[in-house]
Amino acid sequence: MISNNRLTELEYQANFADIHPPFETRDAAAVEANRCLFCYDAPCIKSCPTSINIPKFIKQITTDNIKGSAHTIFVSNIMGAGCSKVCPVEKLCEGSCVYNLMHEEPINIAKLQRYSTEAAMANNWQLFSRKESNGKKVAIIGAGPAGLSCAHVLSREGTDVTIYEKEALGGGLMTYGIAAYKVTPEFCKAEVDYITSIGGIDIKYNQALGKDVSLKQLTEQYDAVYIAIGVGEARQLDIPGEDLAGVEDAISYIYHLRTSDYKEMPVGDRVAVIGLGMTAIDAATQAKRLGAKDVTIVYRRTYDEKPCTDVELDIAKLDGCQVEWLAAPKEIIGENGKVKQLVCSRMKLGEPDASGRKSPVDTGETFTLDVDMVIKAAGQMPFSELVNTEGLKNNYGKISVENKTVTNINKVFAGGDCVNGGKEVVDAVQAGKDGAAEILKFLGV
């Protein structure tokens, strides 16, 4: 039965509290920072898409130079505070820490990064000064990580930036697409405010490309345009019963969870989640934390091919979510227009596909799950129709670029998920930096 307001206010608060609590004292941060070996040619720097000088910022914490530490982080990644909460550090910086080779716990880089960056935000330290205006104007479409990162670099160089954002708040995926126990809406707003506090960045909300503004208009009004619209269309399952009441796509479900009161969010008793990426994990764990009795994740490959990290999967398992491996949705059966059962095909692994992972092959066997809610998290697709309408050269909706960011339209640049098809927040931040560098070169700044 899909209902809401299943838990008490205290239970909701506990279930959606910060999953990675920060260091509570300066001494605790200093003790962890002093474990760092400050490697020469540090592997952690190489594995960070934004190339944060990690040993340097940690060394600055050991000398109690927290302001300097925050500057070291922000100069490479202006969303360093948010990334410290959502980055899959186990496969990036912390995963490459030399302590792993010694079978010891890696340096808690994310927690140390959070310590410095949150201090900067809490004290509103202005660590960058904006150069005098150079008279150039740039429009950015999308106030997500790529757009904000690009805007900050441009503004530092004295370029005036106007961001057109389709939602009512900035932050993009951080604000609308990530589990609430990782980042709160309040934190996301504070991060956007902190980034724009440098000045020279004006965000116009509720302005969508293709609806409220067009590329043609913007290229006429501005010296350059940067597109950072992300991805957002949920991939369909293309199976019978997909239109029944109780079938949700994970993107919309998490969006509503981020914009509604927890007690207003409907959730089933028995929920099936299709897919095993980060979004699937977020949907599954949040359904459980909203009061679902049983949550089953259905994944068509095995543990070895899973797209999520071990850490993410462990969160779901600790919350009591089950995983059906080698299973693919075949049909959703309903009663009176509502979901009642999910029929799945048993799969086996065949030859590797284009992604390098072994392809799932239908064995002909099926099994049935009794469910009253199905959440689809089988991936996201680019905004194909939109980019085609605006005349952008693309590959199945992914905007085609040269030099990492130059599109086929004069004065128009692009980056982030709308180009790469969907990666991590930290990759989008780097894409924004690359875009800004190319735009400044183009403007002759």
UniProtKB/TrEMBL annotation:
It comes from the Bacteria. This is NAD(P)-dependent oxidoreductase. SUPFAM superfamilies: alpha-helical ferredoxin, Nucleotide-binding domain. Residues 27-57 form the 4Fe-4S ferredoxin-type domain. Transmembrane segments: none annotated. InterPro entries: 4Fe4S_Fe-S-bd, DPD_II, FAD/NAD-bd_sf, FAD/NAD-binding_dom, Helical_ferredxn.
